[in-house]
Amino acid sequence: MCGIVGILGQSDVANRLLEGLARLEYRGYDSAGIGVMERSRVKVLRAAGKLDNLRGEVHQGKPKGRVGIGHTRWATHGAATQGNAHPHRAGDVTLVHNGIIENYIELRQALEAEGVAFTSETDTEVLAHVLDRLVRSSDDLHAACQALLKRIRGSYAIAVLFDGHPDLMFVARNGSPLAIGYGKLANDGTAEMYVGSDALAMTDWTTHVSYLEDGDWAFLRPDRVQIFDRSGVEVSRDIVTVPKDEWLVDKGPHEHFMLKEIYEQPDSLGRLLRHLFDLDGGKVKDDIAANVDFSAAQRIVIVACGTAHYASHVARYWIEDFAKVPVEIEIASEYRYRPRVHGANEIAIVVSQSGETADTLAALKDVREHVSATLAVVNVPTSTIAREADTVLTIEAGPEIGVASTKAFTGQVLALLALALKAGCDRGVISSEDLAARIGELVTLPRLISETLAVRDDIERVARHLIQSAHVLFLGRGIQYPIALEAALKFKEITYVHADGYAAGELKHGPIALVDQKMPVVVFDGAGALSEKTASNAAEVVARGACVIRIGTGVESADQGIRTPQCSDLVEPFVNAVVLQLLAYEAARAKGTDVDQPRNLAKSVTVE
């Protein structure tokens, strides 16, 4: 969602702030702004819409200064307007904020009763006014900032500049990620400090980063930082090194990041295979979830949101098959709030690409006291969820910039499959011979994904047909059912065409009423035991006059749909995932929508 970047530097920062914000565009935003310390007063420039609009404001305003903060906003309280864009000023305080302040209404009403006039609809401006009043009533800046944190409830990552303090920045986090970067200039060795809601924002300036913990707050100067915990005790946080090659975000020869990331899947899945499995020995590597013993597990619950939720549904078929243990799949935003019954030998797995998904993180914190072990499947090993879980399994996908998840989805599915196989081994359900055979099937993944990418022309033809309709129905049975759900999600989020995913066997229980000549139906025609039943469901649709488009290895001609490479049942969900990704991509491209940054969506959902 919203992005923060800050610099305490040795040269003009306006253009560098814009560069940092550009690296955060993938998170999703609808307005942007920067604040630059000119001598001892902050100059603020803001614009609604894309960063190009802000660049125009900066070019005209020509701010000059070595210290500054920037922000990309995804609208929560208040519309996407210039007036609601960050930074917000109040007196001597200039502030940017990610998150949601839950008690902002009562704070705002109290300020209005004291005569404060607000210029925006945001909860962030309330923060600025509260802090300004605290600063004015105290001669201790540290005490004023700590008092602010005690007055507010909710999630936040904030960065603040103060008029009259030209080399100082205050930052704090609770529930929203925030990182501090440490840098030295090569020419003379002088120091700079940075802050970002994502380490990616600081990629050109430093590889040395520390991550604030929930409740932390800090004062930054160009050459040093003081970090305090929730109680006000000064603490240190580890400085980690993130290699620059892990932050490469160039589109290369591809038109969009999404397409680049689709085409990266043979490499990303091959890399993950080597990370998860001893390919020569035909086994799951010993260090994969080594401290999680599935042998006594009576239940596994997997908690996730969005695409990660559908990846979890795929995994349930494998875990229950290979490990013979019941699995429940939960939407994090529902799971964290409903009454639940836990068992003594229950294992909780949370899945999140960013490792910062607000509802998933809250669910993890809530459940960990009630289960025997928690395990996180994430793409960012330094993320909050990774740090909070007992065990971490990374999907090794590298940066994913497109809002619509592609390589992260298949990475999550493969990582969860490895856990299913490990659980089967722990429980004595899978023999070493069976395990080696399964891993032998998975070794074919990179090649089969490459072969799937080669049928892009057929996929593009089908995509152009689908966008002629106002509605599309995706069907699947068995493990293809969650693939149909993911296909519908991908299609609607980047094409803006309404799409639904259904279990094909449920067609007669309602959805068939919608079927007519105007609604195309896409069927994931798996080659497994349910293929004949899926064919019968497709025939029911054809009998109602709908156009049926089949996806699978049994497709005989282009008139029927999209023929995929011959593969095993174990590999088929990965192959079909790539087809659905390209299908949504080509449809969106044909419609001319914003593929990488679809409207109203954010890459990392860090607020409820």
Automatic annotation (TrEMBL):
Keywords: Aminotransferase, Cytoplasm, Glutamine amidotransferase, Repeat, Transferase. It comes from the Bacteria. InterPro entries: GATase_2_dom, GFAT, GFAT_N, GlmS/AgaS_SIS, GlmS/FrlB_SIS, Ntn_hydrolases_N, SIS_dom, SIS_dom_sf. Gene3D superfamilies: Glucose-6-phosphate isomerase like protein, domain 1, Glutamine Phosphoribosylpyrophosphate, subunit 1, domain 1. PROSITE patterns: GATASE_TYPE_2, SIS. It catalyses: D-fructose 6-phosphate + L-glutamine = D-glucosamine 6-phosphate + L-glutamate. Residues 290-429, 462-598 form the SIS domain. The keyword Transmembrane does not apply. Its main location: cytoplasm. CDD domains: GFAT (cd00714), SIS_GlmS_GlmD_1 (cd05008), SIS_GlmS_GlmD_2 (cd05009). It is an enzyme of class 2 (transferase). The active site is at C2, K603. One of its GO terms (molecular function) is glutamine-fructose-6-phosphate transaminase (isomerizing) activity. Residues 2-223 form the Glutamine amidotransferase type-2 domain. The keyword Hydrolase does not apply. It is found in: Cytoplasm. NCBIfam families: glmS, PRK00331.1. Catalyzes the first step in hexosamine metabolism, converting fructose-6P into glucosamine-6P using glutamine as a nitrogen source. Homodimer. This is Glutamine--fructose-6-phosphate aminotransferase [isomerizing]. The gene is glmS.
